[in-house]
């Protein structure tokens, strides 16, 4: 029997195909998803991985056997699936393993209106049902069988995004786009069609084996090709998307990465301007100090949350926030059903750059005010013990405050760090920010000396 504890994560289902996740399991997940959400109709999409179409079809059949009409939207990005869920007001499922290697696949699920399904919002109940059915036999088909149909929503998705950001009057820009053989190769041509952009495509061929590099731009090794191409082309900027194209990373005209915190601050300022200089902006606790500073300077109210999309989306809904950003390059918009869309963030960057004459490096400098370490992972034998040792070293230090909203955050007058455990691996993740590089290095080395002792 499948061990669901290995594949049901905090926010999604993810495992090796077909060893951990196959069509039979996908079929059961489709039935369980329908039971838990009480849906009479659902929408299902998938990425370019070789196993994705069959898994999506099996999920749809499971839903139909439980009485729900399933609409297959075919190849799509994760944010396109969220668009379908939001615009059609239907629960949805996306088959993708995002940036994971080719042998993986998974399911991201949401309720109607793109509301998240995680461990605390239905995923635990879905897992329990699937385990019961694996042990005791599949559920009996519903009296009324649902239908399975198809629908293309790519054009509507592109039109919605373009209705939220005006790019018609910007100066012409040359942009290099690295799709990483992922779903941006499918969505970018339609979203960017007719805009004043000269697009230089990289790795737009849909290929779930990722022949050029992993579709994970968070790893600096995976944006080297983009950086070189931006410099070679003399482009205004470069955009890199992950495998399911819900995250977008930006490099400037020099090929230098732009911090996702700086992009969060830039987009926050623009969204506040769209809303008359008022609104709440959500940011997670490892984004830069510059984010709440910029939000306040532009009339908004910053709200700090834990890391993770379910926490961001919950706070977006609770506060009525207009925008939210994470340092992992997930960007959430009220006008996109509080869901994350890297494509909409990319359109904001293009509009901001094209609406003035300076280069991107100068534009983003106003939003990138501090030095940062980036995320540093340490493999440890005992996460709790090592984190406790770090806390003991700082809790009585003068001029320092501690909080435990998510892991341990230690803040001083001119620096802060956050140390938090991975939910899935024996890792502690460290982020440090300070007013200068020397202080970042000193704090980083002191904390790592304790963690790795």
TrEMBL record:
Residues 375-448 form the Alpha-D-phosphohexomutase C-terminal domain. The keyword Mitochondrion does not apply. Its EC number is 5.4.2.2. GO terms for biological process: carbohydrate metabolic process. Residues 6-131, 156-255, 265-370 form the Alpha-D-phosphohexomutase alpha/beta/alpha domain. Its cofactor is Mg(2+). InterPro entries: A-D-PHexomutase_a/b/a-I, A-D-PHexomutase_a/b/a-I/II/III, A-D-PHexomutase_a/b/a-II, A-D-PHexomutase_a/b/a-III, A-D-PHexomutase_C, A-D-PHexomutase_C_sf, Alpha-D-phosphohexomutase_SF. Keywords: Isomerase, Magnesium, Metal-binding, Phosphoprotein. GO terms for molecular function: metal ion binding; phosphoglucomutase activity. It is an enzyme of class 5 (isomerase). CDD domains: PMM_PGM. Belongs to the phosphohexose mutase family. NCBIfam families: PRK09542.1 (NF007088). This is Phosphomannomutase/phosphoglucomutase. It comes from Streptomyces smaragdinus.
């Amino acid at each position: 029997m499948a061990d669901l504890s290995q594949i049901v994560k905090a926010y999604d289902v993810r495992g090796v195909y077909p060893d951990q996740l196959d069509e039979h399991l996908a079929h059961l997940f489709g039935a369980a998803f329908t039971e838990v959400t009480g849906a009479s109709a659902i929408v299902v999409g998938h990425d370019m991985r070789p196993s994705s179409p069959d898994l999506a079809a099996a999920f749809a059949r499971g839903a139909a056997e439980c009485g729900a009409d399933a609409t297959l939207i075919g190849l799509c990005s994760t944010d396109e699936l969220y668009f379908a869920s939001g615009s059609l007001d239907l629960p949805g499922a996306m088959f993708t393993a995002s940036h994971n290697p080719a042998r993986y696949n998974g399911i991201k699920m949401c309720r109607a209106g793109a509301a998240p399904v995680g461990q605390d919002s239905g995923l635990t109940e879905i897992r329990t049902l699937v385990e019961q059915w694996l042990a005791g036999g599949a559920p009996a088909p519903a009296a009324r069988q649902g239908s399975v149909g198809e629908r293309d929503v790519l054009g509507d998705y592109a039109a919605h995004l373009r209705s939220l950001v005006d790019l018609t009057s910007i100066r012409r820009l040359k942009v290099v786009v690295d799709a990483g053989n992922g779903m941006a190769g499918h969505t970018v041509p339609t979203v960017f069609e007719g805009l004043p952009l000269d697009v230089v495509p990289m790795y737009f061929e849909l290929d779930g084996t990722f022949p050029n590099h992993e579709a994970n731009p968070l790893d600096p090794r995976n944006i080297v090709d983009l950086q070189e191409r931006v410099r070679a082309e003399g482009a205004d900027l470069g955009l890199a998307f992950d495998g399911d194209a819900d995250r977008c990373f930006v490099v400037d005209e020099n090929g230098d990465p732009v911090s996702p915190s700086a992009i969060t601050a830039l987009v926050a300022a623009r969204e506040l301007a769209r809303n008359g200089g008022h609104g709440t902006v959500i940011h997670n606790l490892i984004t830069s100090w510059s984010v709440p500073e910029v939000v306040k300077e532009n009339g908004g109210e910053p709200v700090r949350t834990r890391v993770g999309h379910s926490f961001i989306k919950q706070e977006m809904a609770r506060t009525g926030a207009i925008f939210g950003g994470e340092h992992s390059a997930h960007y959430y918009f009220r006008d996109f059903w509080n869901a994350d869309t890297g494509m909409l963030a990319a359109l904001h960057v293009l509009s901001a750059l094209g609406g003035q004459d300076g280069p991107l490096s100068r534009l983003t400098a106003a939003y990138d005010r501090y030095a940062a370490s980036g995320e540093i992972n340490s493999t440890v034998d005992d996460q709790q013990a090592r984190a406790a040792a770090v806390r003991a070293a700082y809790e009585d230090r003068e001029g320092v405050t501690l909080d435990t909203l998510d892991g341990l955050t230690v803040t001083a007058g001119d620096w802060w760090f956050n140390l938090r455990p991975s939910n899935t691996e024996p890792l502690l993740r460290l982020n440090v920010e300070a007013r200068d590089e020397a202080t970042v290095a000193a704090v980083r080395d002191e904390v790592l000396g304790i963690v790795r002792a």
